[in-house]
Amino acid sequence: MNEEALKKAVAQLVACLLSDQAGGSCENGPVPVELSARHVHLSEKDAIALFGAPLTHARDLSQPGQFLCKERVRLIGPKGVMDNVAVLGPSRGASQVEISRTDARALGVDAPVRQSGDTAGTPGMVLASQNAIIGLTEGVIVAARHIHMTPRDAARFGVKDGDRVGVRLDSERPLVLEDVLIRVSDTFSLAMHIDADEGNSAGWKKGVDGVITSRN
User: Fold this and answer.
1) DSSP state string for the chain
2) N or C, fewer C-beta in 10 Å, the chain?
């Protein structure tokens, strides 16, 4: 074990011990696994340009304050289009399109794997509604697989915001996914998000859980 790996192992052990002293334990799971299909986040300006009004709530999502909107958009890329794409609210400061690698090939865009919100230097795309068309100069990404958790969850699992872990999906076709980003906030609810490509490869279905297998 090299020095850097030893430091990480010691840090994780300390986190677990502190969690034990607080009455918890250093756990590995279960972590609910949710499929995040292709979707769009819109700025209020772009929402109004496309729909003539701010976004409207259809139903709540698992993350507190997040919701599916009644509005839908068409994605228009150099090689193809995708209709009826979900829009998620609330509005953000900048618009963002999250697709899978398979989607990116079909649309003809070279979308990089990025954490949500990290869109600098990414490709753009045309978005269309029934009434309008807008062009994004950047904002198209393949979202990095990640786990949302609260600080209390992070203490239980012995991790911190920005860590990377391996997770085994207990699905029809069990699969270990590495380099899973940990995202910690008081506003989150415990859930791992994967895209359609990852879900299909693991035979994901609703109710699948994951177990942390490694901490990097």
Assistant:
1) --HHHHHHHHHHHHHHHHHHHTT-------EEEEE--SEEEEEHHHHHHHHSS---EEEE-SSTT-EEEEEEEEEE-SS-EEEEEEEEEEEESS-EEE--HHHHHHHT--PPEE-TT--TT---EEEE-SS-EEEESS-EEEEPPEEEE-HHHHHHHT--TT-EEEEEE-SSS-EEEEEEEEEE-TT--SEEEE-HHHHHHHT--TT-EEEEEEE-
2) N
**How do residues 57-102 score in pLDDT, each as one tens digit?**
999 999 999 999 999 999 999 999 999 999 999 999 999 999 999 9
Owner of token pair 């230097």: 121
Q: How many residues does the chain have?
A: 216
Q: Which residue has the tokens 């958790």?
A: 149
Give just the sign of the alpha carbon dihedral 43, 193, 64, 66: positive
Cis peptide before 112 (omega within 30 of 0): no
| pLDDT, tens only, 96-112 | 999 999 999 999 999 99
- Residue 122's nearest CA partner among 89, 146, 98 is 98
Cα(191)–Cα(213) distance, rounded to whole angstroms? 16
| pTM (predicted TM-score) | 0.86
Please give the Cα distance from 72 to 39 (Å, whole number).
9
Q: Residue for token digits 């393949």? A: 142
Question: Nearest to residue 84, comparing CAs of 132, 135, 133, 38?
Answer: 38
